[in-house]
Design a protein that fits this description.
The complex is a heterodimer of chains A (about 325) and B (about 375).
Chain A: E1 8-12, H1 13-27, E2 31-35, H2 51-55, E3 60-62, H3 67-79, E4 83-88, H4 94-111, E5 121-126, H5 142-145, E6 151-153, H6 158-170, E7 175-180, H7 183-186, E8 188-192, E9 204-207, E10 212-216, H8 219-233, E11 238-242, E12 245-247, H9 251-261, E13 264-271, H10 276-288, E14 297-301, H11 310-313, H12 320-330
Parallel strand pairs in A: 2-3, 2-4, 4-5, 5-7, 6-7, 10-11, 10-13, 13-14
Antiparallel strand pairs in A: 1-8, 6-12, 9-11
Helix pairs in contact in A: 1-6, 3-4, 8-12, 9-10
Chain B: H1 49-74, H2 89-96, E1 104-107, H3 112-117, H4 122-129, E2 153-156, H5 163-177, E3 183-188, H6 195-206, E4 211-217, E5 220-221, E6 224-225, H7 236-240, E7 244-249, H8 253-271, E8 274-279, H9 299-308, H10 311-321, H11 327-350
Parallel strand pairs in B: 1-2, 1-3, 3-4, 4-8, 7-8
Antiparallel strand pairs in B: 5-6
The chains are: A alpha/beta (about 325), B alpha/beta (about 375).
Amino acid sequence: MPETATAVRELTFGEAIREALAEELRRDPRVVLLGEDVAEAGTAFKVLKGLVEEFGKDRVIDTPISEPGFTGLAVGAAMTGMRPIVDIMFGDFMALIMDQVVNQAAKVHYMSGGKWKVPLVVRATMGATRRSAAQHSQSLHAWPSHVPGLKVVVPSTPHDAKGLLKSAIRDDNPVVFFEDKISYAKVKGPVPDGDYTIPLGVADVKREGRDITLVATSSMVQVALGAATMLEEVGISAEVVDPRTMWPLDEKTLVESVRKTSRAMVIDEGYFRYGVTGEIASVIAEGAFYDLDGPVRRLGARHVPVPFSPALEDATVPTERAVFELARKMCNKS
Amino acid sequence: MGDTYGSRRLKPARYRCGIVDQPGGRLTPRFGSLCMTIATRQTAAGLDVDKLLRMYRQMTAIRLFEERVNDLYTRALMPGLAHLYIGEEAVAVGICEALRPDDYITSTHRGHGHCLAKGAAPRLMFAELLGKEAGYCKGKGGSMHIADPATGNLGANAIVAGGAGIATGAAFSSKYLGTGRMAVCFFGEGALGQGVLYETMNMAQLWKLPVLYACENNLYNEYTHYSETTAGDMLARPAAFGIAAESVDGQNVRAVHTAASAMVERARRGDGPGFLLLNTYRYRGHHVGDVAREYYRSKQEEQRWMTERDPIALHGEWLVAEGLADRATLDRIHAEVAAEMDAAVEFALNAPYPDPGRVDEDVYA
């Protein structure tokens, strides 16, 4: 990892993202930000606060409420010499931009025989438990991960968010970058001052262990780490692996971890069915079958639209307790 | 828009313009003098005689290209289908002749005409249509996805209105980077049903982007007459955004060119996007396999357009009437283009298919 950064501070997840954007805007005049309320408002989550003051309205551009339109415009701008970053306020609006992302951005390079490139970043949010109901709470990162031509990033820590976002902006391919909106203010961590990048496609072992591998993405990394602490108290050593990118997927690190621990659980905030957990579980099953002591288990969002009432919503997302209970069962220590 | 070309009679000179077989090698108005033995000749209205002849040649090239596509299909030599541009040639040619070589276009599923008019090489297009390695997209795109950076072709697009975002974005880049490049978004009247078109038109006008929306009304949204799908006045739609809009006889290449030139000039100046409604006709079916068409339009209707409104015949007659060309000249153009197209087909038929091992290449840059 090219780490030239010096001082390390504690930043929130949101601050790390803003810092990455500011540094890339400073570094490369071709980088522009487009989206709804990105300028003075700094987005609904205030993540971009202050950027328009430094970079002006020509580079931090408020758009009409036209997600397909401004995403499509960004595809064309990316093809013709810019490095646009579009802001999709709620990941649920992926449904609105899927044609531009899937049929245009993802395919331009291939369809043109490699002649045109689309260096585009789509930043979108994900994550439930914000009491925002069914159309502002989904984690839809499995969708773009299904499509060849796209790269998909799901950072879990401020450090990773900054380094991965810089890589995404410098990448010559369309990258969809999912930010957990609960983490914006809640997750804090050390972030080096200055420039560093983290390559796309390299998983990170967030905690080493011997008895079980917990593969967790985005917000679920914190959940898995919390569960690992609980498991330690009952004598189970859990390893927590964060793939960090859905595609490219670091299959090697996942498989190696499970070969060592012999047990694997995959935890993800997306819908349980036909999603990330199923894909990663199959990668592990194919790569580490003869080292497994039992089937790979999965925890994901319940297969229901995200409900509004806290009493209902909290029942849809995997919790530390659920991970702990399942892991204990898998390790025969219940 | 009327015919603003002058009527001063000039003797036609030899020229060697039009489509040549190298990407980016097409001679364009800007460099027109390079291919002429004498200085630029102009009509009384100040228009380039060689350009008028080149437009004839370009339209002929599209027509003869498409006839060979149909032939390859019927002889089962072409995989899949193709959507022929026959009948609409004046639209692509009239507009592309108003552009610089480095200007951008986005095209459609019915895109061969746009690609050729912007300077694509027929042999590389035929190779692509046949799925050959030598094709513009190494056989990965096919008929509906011809793309070529060398001629500013951002790609033909098989999603209706799929080029709206891309063309508008290219215009955005042009303004941001100060390159002065224009973007033309070709689409059919069927695309008027797609919301993203209006979203991008709105931004183009808000930000005064140098983009021309070229709406080809060939009367049919695939197999359905537009009147069954389109409420109100088409031109009222761009007008609602304050976009300069104009309806043009799409069978008159000079009228198209004059209108497009004006739109391009004002857009390049920074006065914002334009919208042209080009009234034209698709002689053939929605695609090459759509041969029994009586359930949606009559043979008489088709016949009427072909005999009374053919853009190539009309322009040829005008050139002769104005004394800018004689019949023999036009016949020679036809023969030259036909020979070029036959050679291009031959090249494509003989070109090798891509190695199946290359299927995974070009997914990522």
